[in-house]
Amino acid sequence: MVLEQPLRSFFMQLAKSKPLNKAAKKWGLKFGASQVVAGATLEDAMKNVQLLNSKGLHCTLDHLGEFVTEKEEAIEATEACLNVLRAINETGAMCNLSLKMTQLGLDIDEEFCLDNMKRICQTALSFNIFIRIDMEDYSHCEQTLRILSILRKDYDNVGTVIQAYLHRSEADVAALKGVPLRLVKGAYKESEKVAFQDKAKVDENYITIIQNHLDSGSYTAIASHDHMIIDKVKAYADKNKIPKEQFEFQMLYGFREALQKELMEEGYKVRLYVPFGTDWFGYFMRRLAERPQNIAFALRGFFKK
Prior knowledge:
Blueprint: H1 5-15, H2 18-27, H3 42-54, E1 58-63, H4 71-91, E2 95-99, H5 110-127, E3 131-133, H6 141-152, E4 158-163, H7 169-175, E5 181-184, H8 199-215, E6 220-223, H9 227-239, E7 247-252, H10 257-265, E8 270-276, H11 281-290, H12 292-304
């Protein structure tokens, strides 16, 4: 169940508010955010990653931030990503890196962003770490796939995310055969011109692109907390003799811990998306927009403060 459209739109608008995002950096992790964000610092995040690894969970770290408009900020974000890679390498953690290219200067200059991405991919390659480029709103979709195509010529340790609610996604998945993809339903507010608005159609397309990518022999990350989707994927993989080594289930840090454990006990790889940093507000508002349960989750955290 998703939020009613007016309330969902309200939280999505809050996520884009620059004044609120700026203020949130000074607040610290508030309103229950500490339950879904693994700390303000890399040190905090790595402690959480190592704890999760000890339970058998794989991770992907995301230094939160997006929609950067100054080159200096983008360079700082690039250095932060490089520091994450060094920390993963030094600790030997079972962990990838996820990033948003608007944090690395995509809205400033595409070539500048590409140069930053090449630095990150080269360092990650030397450490044998995989880089996941998060897909952002529709306005950045074409740019993201264009940069990915350039990077894949030299780096096979980079992939991206495809969002099932977009009309173009089935064609994009077909074009990305052989590229490791994280497949998601989608978390941004998009117009009916580019995205399905009906949940049933999104779910139907989600299953379609998952099955298509698995059928192509490509490594597939299924990022969902929806047990019905997960059960359908397990049944399809079993029926079509798709090995468990070809896919993994991904979930967000702080959610569905019992389901994570159940999947691991059944022999599936489970990876958690672990965000950290002071720029947490936009990420947290999108989580509140996705499901009504998340609002109650946040209120519990608020009253604990």
